[in-house]
Structures are given as C-alpha cells and as structure tokens.
Amino acid sequence: MKFSKLTYFGFSLAQPGQRFLVLFGAPGVGKGTFAKLFIKDTQFNHVSTGDEIRKILKGQTSQGFDQNLIKEIKEIVQRGGLVSDDIVLNILKEKVKEPESAKGVILDGVPRTLHQLDLYDKILPTHVVVNVTLRNDILLEKLSARRTCIGCGNSYNICDINRDGYVMEPLNPKVDGVCDQCGGKLVIRDDDKKEIIEQRMKEYDQKTHPLLERYRQKGVVIDFEVKRGKKDYPRLWDLVKVKLY
Fold first, then answer.
1. Is residue 226 pLDDT above 50, yes or no?
2. Beta carbons within 10 angstroms of residue 144's beta carbon
C-alpha cells in the first residue's frame, strides 16, 4: 500500500488565534504532570502521537477524523510496520481541526526528528517550546525509586530528596511494598533499573539535542529545571505566558 504523503498548501494550517506549545522532557522529569497543568490553564488540546495511534487502533477517534488515514495506520500496524513521518504529521493535521484545538495545541512527543520538524514547519507555527530538565543524578535517583504494582499498574515513588535546592517528596504506599489500590505487590520494573535508565537518558539526549538546537535558533525555547516537582509549576507558567500570548 502506498503511504500517505503530507499535503502542503503553501500557508499555515493554524486557525486564527490558535497557539502551539511543544513539550520536551526526559522520562521521569515530570513532563506529564506539567502537561496536565498546562491543559487546565490553556484549555489547549493535548496531542501525543503515540496516544493518538493507540486511539486509532481502538476506534476512539473524533467523528471527523480522516477515515482513509485511519485505515492506512491500522494496516501498517497490523503488518508490523512503522508509521512514517508524513503519517505522523497527517495525524497532527487532523487533531488541529478538532474543536478541542480551537485555542491551541500542546504537542507532546512530536516533532520527534529533524525531518518531522521540517515537515511541521511547512504547515504549522511554534510559539513556545518548554524543555523540562532535571539534574542527571537527581533524575536517576528519582527513577530508580519508582515502584509499580504488578496487579493494577499503579505507580509510587519512595525517593525523598532534600539537598542542593532540590525538594522531591516521596509518594509512598500506606503499607510498604503493597499497593493502596488493589493490595498487589510493588516491584521495580526492568526499565527502572539503573543501567536501563542511564541508557534511556543517553538516547533521549542524543535524539532531542538537534531538535532543541533548531528551536533555539528560532528563539522560542524555555529551559526549565525542576527543583520542587509540581510546586514549580506557577513559576513555569509565568515564563510560558510571556511567550505564548
């Protein structure tokens, strides 16, 4: 089957008043938490292409979503193929048209490559890029302290960091090693082990560095180091508002 090609119209597909915020952050820095807070304050549509593909496979797309694109993505996944950059951007085009995107879009995990960014720049603007960071040794300690329930998948974190200006409070279960939700056993997942975490951090830096450098040339990047977790959000929001609006 021939893959969909991104159609260029020679002008931005953004609607009047739409704003576009791009989120970067290594696993464990709290990007997901900040995304939820941004959604609440901006009323933007949150778009993660990984989540969107899962919705497509489950038949959970919006009513006006391109049916040909849905069919093509399902066929690619069923035969074990990889979704092309053009298809990723076509998914984004569909999301931008949704009523939930009227005020703007929070992009999480896209663009993921320089080629995707090249395609994106031809059809949509970028108003602000938030790069959430955390010192590597703190991030490693935080990720190594995650505990996951083998029953329901609920997550906890037993780290208690209070040094060098970093304050990361633990999220402990009521009973040590036991899930509050279902009583299941809490374990350390394989991908939360030190060697795996260090490899993931290295790969993340290698993949995102070229993208962030390109965005820096545009003057839209806010580098924000997390010091107190969720409590840092008001400070971050003050910085974002200046560039976003």
1. yes
2. 16
